[in-house]
Every structure is written in structure tokens, then in C-alpha cells.
Amino acid sequence: MIRVNVKQGTPEWHEARYRKVGGSTSKGLYVKGDTLKNELIGQFLEDFEDVDSYLSADMERGNELEPYAIKELNKYTTLDFNSAGWLQCEDIPLLGISPDGITDDDKHSCEVKCPGRKKHTETILNDSIPLDNLHQCVHYFTVNPKLETHTFCSFRPENKIKPLFVYVLTRDSLVNLGTKSKPVFRTVQEWIKISKQAAINLQLEIDSDIKKLEF
Length: 215
Fold this sequence. Notes:
single chain, alpha+beta, Lambda Exonuclease, Chain A, 4-stranded mixed β-sheet, 3-stranded antiparallel β-sheet, 6 helices, globular
């Protein structure tokens, strides 16, 4: 794994993520269809151009609260999560991730969410990582071979009883990357093998389709 020291949200950060499968798009490695492939082919066919990042009110709230969430998480876990711009998978260059926090030894990382009232309430009542965040959490392990634990955090300071929700994954954790009605449980390590092979196949398909366009 290679650390790319850029500040998240900057043009350099967007460029580091260009033509890559990151945490937010990693679900595409597990589902059928060409959506992810076609998006990446489009990027490979065009040079990078900086984009004006749109921030919704929820995204702005998340950016404002994230430093406070990590501070609380550091106290809760007794770990020291620091920011990192982009982590690049070395053996499969198509893969990478922008961690919300990672320790200096690369062994522990965190994903921080600062959701609205309903989402946070559902998370603490279910006592688990929301299904729509699980692919991203598993992707941390896929990119980082040193990773031992990954901590998911839902932070909502307005909540009077449980403002901080923490759930820790290891490579042995059983994770459902199916759906609620049709669950598919495997260990994180098993999902890593599946996603890596899917990424290798995806790169081969991208290269093949681009070559076809050249003739």
C-alpha cells in the first residue's frame, strides 16, 4: 500500500482518485452490471479535469463534525487516528481508499459518519453497521494488507443517550454484503478475495474494451 499525502477535497486528491475504485464505489465490485466499468472507461478515455465539488447541507455538516467525532473516537478506542489523503493498493492499482482516519502504523482505521436523526437512531437500535456502509468498510481491508481492525463510527452529538456509536471489524468478522431480505454472510477475509479478483477481472475488461475502441 502506498500513502499519497494530499489533502482530501483538493484538486490533487480528486486526481489521485481518478480512474480508481474507492470506498464509495466499491459496491460495484460485488454487483452485476456495467455501471462501474463504463464510468471507469470514460475516465481512462479522458484526461483529468478538476471538478467543482458540490456539498449538500448534510455533507457540510459531516465535514464540520468529523474532527469532533474522531476526537471522541480516539478517546473511546485509545487509538490515535490521523488523517490521510489517499491509500493506493500496490498489487492492484485500480483500488484505493480515502480513510477518515488511520493510525501511523497502518494497522487501525476508521470510517466516520455524522448522519441525520433517523439514520443514527436506526444504527444504534440495530447495533450494527448499516448495510449501505458495509462495502466501504470492507474495502479498507482490501486496500490495506496491514490492517488489523477497522472502526465504524456514527456520531450525532444531539443524541442525549448515545451520541457515539462504535462497531469494530476484523478480518474474521462475519459481514453481510447481500441485502436484508437475501443476506450473504462471509468473513471480511473471504470478501477481500472476492473483491480483489473482481477488480482484476474489471481491469482486464476495461483494457479489452478500450483496445476494441482503438480499431
